[in-house]
Amino acid sequence: MPEIxxxxxxxxxxxxxxxxxxxxxxxxxxxxxxxxxxxxxAVKRALTGRELEQARRRGKxxxxxTDRTGPVLGMxxxxxxxxxxxxxxxxxxxxxxxxxxxxxxxxxxxxFADGGRLALRDPRRLxxxxxxxxxxxLGVDAMELTLAQLRAVVAxxxxxxxxxxxxxxxxxxxxNLLVDETLxxxxxxxxxxxxxxxxxxxxxVHRAVRTTLRTLGRRGGSxxxxxxxxxxxxxxxxxxxxxxxxxxxxxxxxxWCRLHQR
Length: 262
Ligand SMILES: [Zn+2]
Description:
Elements: H1 4-17, E1 23-27, H2 40-47, E2 52-58, E3 61-66, E4 72-76, E5 82-85, E6 88-89, E7 106-112, E8 117-121, E9 128-131, E10 140-141, H3 147-155, H4 161-166, E11 171-172, H5 176-186, H6 199-219, E12 244-249, E13 252-257
Parallel strand pairs: 10-11
Antiparallel strand pairs: 1-7, 2-3, 3-4, 4-9, 5-6, 5-8, 7-8, 12-13
């Protein structure tokens, strides 16, 4: 499932391949995919003739600025979406079911005047397209997260620390795999109440967020963590060999080690 690292790969692809290209047409065959009252007709009218000027991102939300007074195109990858430009797709082809190029999965496409296209390919149809999304509904971007910001977020919540780290309104971009990897690296159990973390544990979690994003970003995505191999029934901790706990925390299937995660 796309998390901040996959959204960043898509942002980079847009930056490298789509900026400065003129939109000659918009295909929005799936009206359900358009959010906040946007219609296929309105999105065509708003984007046709414009150029893509800048590719930004906040958490998992892609934000593409268009020229002059044009709208911001917001795209969300959902559970299985990938951005495809011409014939190149962002993300690791081995782990996405959406690797196959099935036209029905193109929920939204921009046709460029030069003959190429940008498509959002999404088999599970849980992504979204909107114009001028409310960027401030999202918390601080996980890649920019400071220790002070992390402290402020965890200190005021009795919810499990995993749920707090995954709350997009607090910290934008971390999903299930990245949070499990982060907590495993920091030695903190995911079901601990967030506010119970002491200062040293807050530092450890903050450091682990940064290390996890940097390391897994370099390796190629959120599925490349050290804990990943052990995310199976009967899996053991790659650090100490202890059997992992598998339980639902914050509504998501969670793996952790009772020996070194306290
Ligand atoms: Zn362990």
